[in-house]
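Fig. S4 source data, part A: sequence.
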Amino acid sequence: MEVTQTQAEGLRRTFEIKVTASELQTRLDQRIEEIRPQMRLKGFRPGKVPAAHVRRMFGRDLMGELIDKLVNDTNQKTLEDNSLRPAGQPNVQLEGDLEKVVQGQADLAYSMQVDIMPEFTPVDVTTLTITRPVAEVPEESIEEALKRIADQNMKYEARAEGEASQDGDAVIVDFVGKIDGEAFEGGSAEQQAVVIGANRFIPGFEEQLLGVKAGDEKELNVTFPEDYPAENLAGKAAVFETKVHEVRAPQVPELDDEFAKGLGLEGIEQLRGLVKDQLQGEHNVASRSKAKRDLLDKLDAAHDFELPPGMVDQEFEQIWQQLQREMDAGRVSDAEKTKPEEELRDEYRKIAERRVRLGLVLAEIGRIADVRISEAEVNQALIREARQYPGQEREVVQFFQKNPGAMAQLRAPIYEDKVVDHILSVATIEDATVSREELFKEDED
């Protein structure tokens, strides 16, 4: 076997590797001798199948398996012999006619191109000073949250006989929708509660129920929106024949001990405390997120080293594909819509470079600090992922278990967060008091 390095530019290495046909045949003979004792073929005594017969029957498949293993083993040995840390899977390009190689008529020759990890010394994280914005939970936020809870527990009580409906009321109706005098599928309901002003029905439907009374019958003239999901209804005028059974007025509960006890609590003060704790938890998450952003900015500014081109290319392609999906869905800013593609590519390549650089820096800091993640943490993340697909949990778990790449993507953010937590635990943290609005303000960039 011959291994020759043909390129060493930056972080990219290329090797030309050659295994002679005679060496391949020798390895094939050895493999046949390994499996013959266990072979059971009709017409032969157990373990006594002639090598020539094994070669004739299974030689091609065995040679294919042999080549695959040889390439993997050779690549690994080449990296180890040259003390190289790969930054991804090597790219293998076979040369010549593989069919002739399998048949033993040609040497196995291929090139292996691999990006290697850069050598750098990460910044001493104990010297970093990180700004962490913090905000007190304002009383008005607590009151707003309590009001939302009360609204969520709102009940509707029947208005007095003959009393007309008002905005916010729930009107109980039967209705039949018709287009050109013909009822259409999905346009009918009985004892349907329609909350006026909730905007849960097509435009104009709820508004025309203002002022109705129990026992009224009324035709509602509406037009389906042009972008209505059902294409057979989009943009069409319809008439809904309605019969009002009851008009119910909203009754917002009083925020008192009785209300809190109805939620299973001791009283209103306990409910208020729980609300404050929840809001404080949201503040803590936002504070950490901002501190992490400041930390990443400082790490990015503190490091400047060459990046593995393959890693940058792969990260850029993922970002670019996501951008294309966002553009197709109309979820990008007007500024990005009008930018030339070349300018956009340059901007997003810089983002890809930043992500790769920070990934390498965090990985090295984590290695030095011996940061590890447990299988329990990975399993918890897998369970959370599976729960996002109700009814398919087993399939999701099996997918991750069978795909090392997918499992690596699941582990990566867990590891990153643990490294960030480690850095925040040893760096100098300076709290900066801000308003709640400032704390939750999205970064413009």
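Fig. S4 source data, part B ends here. The longest strand covers residues 237-251.
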